Amino acid sequence: MRKFLPEQARRIALAAQGFDRPRPKTGVDIRHIRRIIRQLGLLQLDFVNVLVPAHKRKQGYYVLPFLLYERIVARVDLKAEREAKQLLVLAAHGEAGIDESRTVEHLAGELRSLADWLGLERVKVSPRGSFARRQADCIDSCGSIS
Predict the structure, then answer these.
(1) pLDDT top residue among 58 and 8
(2) Which CATH number fits domain 49-141: 3.40.50, 3.30.70, 3.40.630, 1.10.4160?
């Protein structure tokens, strides 16, 4: 078995994901980002609100984007309460110009899937955020995690 130095392994991994291609000459645009998302099947945002004092946070402590059909449509602040066996949605914020009904429905399904994956029995939504109440209603009306 051949051994690689860490930098060699990194270059091989990046090339396998298509990152050995030259950068676009005109800069990065939405087409380039969409191609990367389709290619990798994921999007990572490196922003955490932990350094902002609690009273100045607008959306929460560790806000995660919700991507639906290649568009960020919502942001949620989540916490796994393992002793209570629940996924707590501390805040749920919709982005401007979204189809709120569709977003709430899809997000409810993903929250249930996440709770199930984490071994939690239920999803509880706090009333904080632009569509937290609708999110809570949707989760309640769709029943518990099976």
Answers:
(1) 8
(2) 3.40.630
